[in-house]
């Protein structure tokens, strides 16, 4: 995996780059495990825009990824490593011994032809899916369940990785990519290894058009608007607006805490990521 730089034939080519997709083994998804993704344009079921600056973009098919991997003890062979337009990490198509095919998050280093397995008796190697209680301390993991049997919820983006620090009282201390140390039930499953597509963080879009391909529309700055449209709007020439940075609805954007003060899951945080 590497990034391809282009010759600066145009201003947009000068800084933009793209993945070389060297690890991808096919350019077509397995159709039975996909469906067409419908765009919302940021609108809810009433037609009101609830998420701004969304719309357009390339047509996509959603890949049905198995984050649970609950076919315990049944070995699976890796058939392909594929690109998924709906996430930053790569996915792998695997086939179990009974012929069932499934998409999984592809760990870094997993190759076509390798065999992986889920379950408490599985070997601790890249791609295998085990309970935290069976994974040694210090092991790098991803696709972590918050509750046993609910499927992986944490550490699923490109290149991210978590680490098991300790275990006590049926709970595991897991250090997340943000630096937060969190208690997770030892019965919860996780996949061994680091998430694929490590070079994703170095990608530079290079031009506004590539953002539009991703379905991201332009942003008009608040201070460039009129007072009727934004709290920071108006003023003769350039002005700061007189208020702290905020959204058109008045929600503060810098330092304003949005997490509930007494959230139930606070008791599972051993070390806060902000400290």
Characterization of this structure:
- The protein is mostly beta strands.
- The protein has one domain (3-201, 263-271): Beta Barrel (OB fold (Dihydrolipoamide Acetyltransferase, E2P)).
- The chain has two helices and 17 strands.
- It has helices spanning 11-15, 208-213, and strands at residues 3-5, 17-19, 34-36, 61-63, 76-82, 91-96, 101-105, 115-116, 129-131, 140-142, 144-145, 152-154, 162-168, 171-175, 181-185, 189-192, 269-271.
- The strands form five sheets. A seven-stranded antiparallel beta sheet has the order 9-16-10-13-14-15-17, with no helix packed on it. A four-stranded antiparallel beta sheet has the order 7-6-5-8, with no helix packed on it.
- The model has no long low-confidence stretch (mean pLDDT 94).
